[in-house]
Amino acid sequence: MKNYLTIFMTALKLGLTSFGGPTAHLGYFQKEYVQKRKWLSNEQYTDLVALAQFLPGPASSQVGMGIGLLRGGIIGSLLAFIGFTLPSVIILMVFALFLVGTSIDLGFIQGLKLVAVAIVAQALLDMSKKLLPTAKHVLLAIAALSALLLFQASWLQIVVIIVAAIIGQFIFTQTASTQQTFTFSKKIGTLCLSAFVILLIALPLVARFTNNAWLLLFEKFYTAGAFVFGGGHVVLPLLETQFVTTGLLSSADFLAGYGLTQAVPGPLFTFAAYIGTLTNGIAGGIVATIAIFLPAFLLIIGALPFWQLLSANPKLRGAVVGMNAAVVGILGAAFISPIITHTVTSVKDVAVLLVLVAIVFFAKQPPWVTVVSGLLLGLLFYR
Q: Which pTM does this prediction carry?
């Protein structure tokens, strides 16, 4: 019971303080779960990130679910998901119920976005030191970074990971570790993967045959969560097609909610809670949240035991090492664009960022201190 409480409270703390989108979340996770709590090694963490990047769904949420799974089984995975997701779900549901149409100045959020830049920079530096020990590793990471910056397409990261795995199998076989990274039931994994496919096929058919409003709502969000590669930003056009184009939501209300979703901590997929609440009340917000995250939950539990077989096989471990190097490059590309290019846009941003970098790198303060500092700087300089 104590272990479950620790999993939940740790995830809740991250859900309250993790600003800046999926790549920033992975930076916060690395700092909390790897550096501070040592629940898993850098190699294990990056293996998990590589798997999440490969699967459809919200990558950072799947990493959190995976860590909860490894720490406390399926219950631990659920608690990690609830803790990380709950704060932003509550904020967005309240906004949908009471605040739509009001004028709110969110300028101070810029300070929190700059916090994410500093946190991700530190996480990338730490991961690079441990996961890029040779020139071959560095070159593979640079190649991945360059490809994603030159051709910015969400599906490309899957191609990059596959190519890196093929290359890694040939050039890293001798230096790869053969440690087992994950241990989990293949039977449960198979059941979860089967449930994912069955729901993906059956939900649209049953929802349209019965014309049940709640099933239709569930199906819309489940389908969106199942077909998104590249993180929460990519879900925007899918949900816009489902709700704005069909007239269920106005464009103004849709964009207001999406803007707030970018500003609050936690996963971007919680935008579903806002839409569900706006269209179907509190129950709609809860149903939409469960539906959009359910594919990610089934996939991470389903894929982990088979990913473990890949990681534990000495002949294939080089492929995983290659994927890990590529993940550093993928995160580096996301750090440059959109995190830096969309966040650091003025001299004022540079000045505030330098202060936050000093807090993170030199004062070595915990994340909550950095977040509070960013909030105060945001209130002071961006009102």
A: 0.75
